[in-house]
């Protein structure tokens, strides 16, 4: 073995040990959001803070810095070279934070998460506010520590979507706002769609079984993962061999669990498709949150709200819920599950108005981070924006500014990736349909999505972080991100449903 090979192995071993600690923390986090008894919260917060401090120290130190610099100067095979370059980027970024800062952030996040749970229970933002305020302060400090060009929010967005800036996202949202508004007003002139059959009574246990059936059908590997219940559905992983999804069930809302399950399965299929031999290394990780979201939105919307899918699965659904869907035709069903209507909750929004929900959060966060909006002003700002952009009155905090878990996690800079994900999804879906022969037929006649999954595995999943999001999009579809593809996808779909 050459000295360079030895050096690379040493690097790999360091990275995998750091990953061991991070994934151990992820198990505790997953447990915190699924099974942790209430009184365990305080010490759990401590445990997580300690692990995040330890993993930071294991990664950021002079020895590793020397090792990385050494490797950067060597002539390495392509994949190794890319791993080292990406690790160096991460290193340079994280080096700007001290272990004390990382610990403080983790403790503040845990306190804020439990305050958010309690605030939702009591439907009162006032309970969340005193725990959110110090977290926003820390995030503003973090932006300063990382450093940025232009807007301080750029520093935070970069963590989730490398290269995303206020300037770029503002332009994307400006471009898409008008066509979405036009489309919305056209639809609002049409006859209202009846979706009342989705709000009959659906027993929890039956919904659970239906969700598990769908997850299996779509290719979620239960030997390398499981599903549980949580307050806010999410996907996490402890390696590509252990991927966890969660869902929530509302007995009076069929849509809630079904499409959130398909969504999380989309995320999970990506994680299960990452190369296990790259465990702990950048090429074993997802490309960006925008790309992650493209996977969930592709399965949830392009596949899971599509005609082909329900041609096969509506008859299956009728076996699970014979009473509730007995008189529902495929046409009625498709119209109902694609109904466009401004509403209060992002996670349950239709494919069109969804992006207005994202825009509200994006603008709000930008202002919080630049300091032009105070934490105590959030509910008022939120409610005003919902009236202005979506035309709805927010009746209470729970269905207003307390609905998303992200801020309690300290995830500022995240929301724009939800819209980017939908736009990437439309582009990937368009290309998949051009490239995979007989895809629609396979789905509609046999309920099979295997060739789509295989295509995603080969074109997206297996690359890990090798390409950044725009490079990946261009490599797979031949073009960088273009939100016009999303607009035409949506127009065509909604027109077909008329
Ligand atoms: Zn998602």
TrEMBL record:
Q: What's the protein name?
A: Metal-dependent carboxypeptidase
PANTHER family the UniProt entry points to: CARBOXYPEPTIDASE 1 (PTHR34217:SF1), METAL-DEPENDENT CARBOXYPEPTIDASE (PTHR34217)
Signal peptide start and end residues? none
**Broad EC category:** hydrolase
Which domain of life does the protein's organism represent? Bacteria
The record lists the catalysed reaction(s) as:
Release of a C-terminal amino acid with broad specificity, except for -Pro
EC number(s) per entry:
3.4.17.19
What does the record note about the cofactor?
Binds 1 zinc ion per subunit.
Q: Which family does it belong to?
A: Belongs to the peptidase M32 family.
Record-linked CDD domains: M32_Taq
Q: Where is the active site?
A: 264
Q: Which Pfam families match?
A: Peptidase_M32
Q: Name one GO biological process term.
A: proteolysis
Which Gene Ontology MF annotations are present? metal ion binding; metallocarboxypeptidase activity
Which cofactors does it use?
Zn(2+)
| Keywords, alphabetical | Carboxypeptidase, Hydrolase, Metal-binding, Metalloprotease, Protease, Zinc
Q: Where does Zn(2+) bind?
A: 263, 267, 293
Per the entry, what this protein does is: Broad specificity carboxypetidase that releases amino acids sequentially from the C-terminus, including neutral, aromatic, polar and basic residues.
């Amino acid at each position: 073995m050459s000295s360079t090979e030895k050096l690379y192995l040493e690097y790999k071993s360091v990275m995998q040990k750091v990953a061991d600690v991070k994934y151990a923390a992820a198990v505790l986090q997953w447990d915190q959001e699924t099974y942790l008894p209430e009184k365990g919260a305080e010490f759990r917060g401590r445990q997580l803070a300690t692990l995040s401090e330890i993993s930071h120290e294991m990664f950021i130190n002079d020895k590793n810095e020397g090792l990385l610099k050494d490797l950067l100067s060597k002539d390495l095979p392509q994949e190794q070279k890319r791993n080292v370059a990406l690790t160096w980027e991460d290193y340079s970024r994280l080096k700007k934070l001290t272990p004390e800062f990382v610990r403080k952030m983790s403790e503040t996040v845990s306190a804020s998460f439990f305050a958010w749970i309690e605030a939702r229970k009591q439907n009162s933002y006032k309970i969340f506010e005193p725990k959110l305020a110090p977290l926003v302060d820390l995030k503003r400090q973090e932006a300063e520590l990382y450093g940025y060009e232009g807007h301080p929010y750029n520093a935070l967005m970069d963590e989730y979507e490398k290269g995303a800036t206020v300037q770029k996202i503002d332009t994307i949202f400006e471009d898409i706002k008008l066509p979405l508004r036009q489309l919305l007003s056209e639809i609002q002139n049409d006859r209202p769609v009846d979706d009342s059959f989705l709000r009959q009574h659906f027993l929890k246990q039956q919904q659970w079984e239906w969700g598990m059936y769908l997850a299996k059908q779509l290719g979620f590997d239960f030997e390398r993962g499981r599903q549980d219940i949580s307050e806010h559905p999410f996907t996490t992983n402890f390696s590509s061999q252990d991927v966890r999804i969660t869902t929530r069930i509302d007995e009076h809302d069929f849509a809630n669990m079904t499409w959130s399950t398909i969504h999380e399965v989309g995320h999970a299929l990506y994680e299960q498709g990452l190369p296990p031999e790259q465990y702990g290394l950048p090429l074993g990780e997802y490309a960006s949150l925008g790309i992650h979201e493209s996977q969930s939105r592709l399965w949830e919307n392009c596949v899971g709200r599509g005609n082909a899918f329900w041609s096969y699965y509506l008859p299956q659904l009728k076996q699970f819920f014979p009473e509730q869907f007995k008189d529902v035709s495929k046409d009625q069903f498709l119209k109902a599950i694609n109904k466009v209507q401004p509403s209060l909750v992002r996670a349950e929004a239709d494919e069109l108005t969804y992006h207005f929900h994202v825009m509200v959060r994006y603008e709000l966060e930008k202002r919080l981070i630049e300091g032009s909006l105070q934490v105590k002003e959030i509910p008022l700002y939120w409610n005003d924006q919902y009236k202005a952009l979506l035309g709805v009155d927010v009746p209470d905090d729970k269905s207003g500014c307390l609905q998303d878990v992200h801020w309690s996690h300290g995830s500022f800079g995240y929301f724009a990736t939800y819209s980017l994900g939908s736009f990437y999804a439309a582009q990937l879906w368009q290309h998949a349909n051009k490239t995979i022969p007989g895809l629609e037929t396979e789905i509609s006649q046999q309920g099979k999505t295997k060739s789509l999954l295989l295509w995603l595995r080969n074109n997206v999943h297996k690359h890990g972080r090798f390409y950044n999001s725009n490079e990946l999009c261009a490599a797979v579809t031949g073009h960088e991100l273009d939100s016009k593809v999303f607009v035409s996808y949506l127009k065509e779909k909604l027109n077909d449903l008329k």
